[in-house]
Amino acid sequence: MPFDRRVWLEATTLRKAGWQVSVICPIGKEWTARHEVIDEVAVYRHPLPPEISSVVGYLREYAHALFHQWRLARRIHRERGFDVVHICNPPDLMFLVALWCKLFYGSRVVFDQHDLCPEMYEAKYNRRGFFYHAQRWAERLTYACADIVISTNQSYREVAIQRGRKADSNVFVVRSAPNLETFKPVGPNSRFRQEGCSQIAYLGVMGEQEGIDHLLRSAKHVVHDLGRQDVRFVLIGDGPAVPDLKKLCTELGLDEFVTFTGRLPDSEMIERLCSADVCVDPGPKTPFYDKSTMNKIMEYMALSKPIVQFDLLEGRRSAGDASLYAQANDEIDFADRILELVDSPPQRREEMGKLGFHRMQSQLEWRHQGEKLVEAYQSLKDLG
What we know:
Layout: H1 5-16, E1 22-26, E2 35-38, E3 41-46, H2 55-79, E4 84-88, H3 95-105, E5 108-113, H4 117-125, H5 129-145, E6 148-151, H6 154-162, E7 171-173, E8 198-203, H7 212-225, E9 231-236, H8 242-251, E10 258-262, H9 266-274, E11 278-281, H10 287-291, H11 295-302, E12 307-310, H12 313-319, E13 323-326, H13 331-342, H14 346-364, H15 366-383
Parallel strand pairs: 1-3, 4-5, 5-6, 6-7, 8-9, 8-11, 9-10, 11-12, 12-13
Antiparallel strand pairs: 2-3
Helix pairs in contact: 1-15, 2-3, 3-5, 4-5, 7-13, 11-14
């Protein structure tokens, strides 16, 4: 924090609505102070061990996080006090800290469900087994601990009601959407483009389940199979899969055509996206992705960019006519949809971008979502 855009918007919105807000989060690369106050929000940070993509690595990371969250929750209760514990996932283990606060401090609990963890595990490892079912139990216990649930879309709301057995009146949809007052488009910058080439941009975390390998194989089809060496790809973000993705990029002969930027400051990230002709989300059709709303889709729409993605339920619900939709997990069709937009008149891309921005402005942006968040918190007061 404040790097996590959704949680920071939630924190500052609640502060403006009259709540006193304290946040517990890990130390980040740019944000290293153990304790500071930003925009009247008190931020308490804790260390984490290095991220390792393995069962032992995850267990070690979660054990550290839970210990520090419990320790800092006790400190905040002592120093500032609180009435509500607002927990986000993944992982679905923070109910352990929330349950402590509920039992010993009488706190209400809000479960802000960012991901379907069992489905995410299945998408990442392509199997179920013991850890999948353990996550189903953790999810169930998190629902049971929560007084209300905040879902990021309609599909997640349905899961909370059906699988989580929450009352319809206790589940609220608050989408992850940028604040259009601060997340604004800028003009394209020629230094981020190669003259005579079209630019395709991806933004997001680079994990094993994100489908970036699909995008690289689609890029290989565009560049080598179809001979379109006038197309460049820029991948913005960081994550545990980056070394393997760079290796795959080299194996596919794409080093000249693909740029990995790493994590960027917001200003440069926005500038690079605005310098692209098309923005993409290669998240594959799985139970996880089909029901999830990706932040990148909302951010592309906020910047009036045309989109290519696979045909996913929530992806289509979010983007509508602002996107082209490739057949499920078909890398060739994904490449063809990219080229369809690249080779279209600029007016078509501009019109798609305008449609996406209008959806953001009229329905989806944070101005609308913040009102729903405050409404959800008001329901806690009504519970007594």
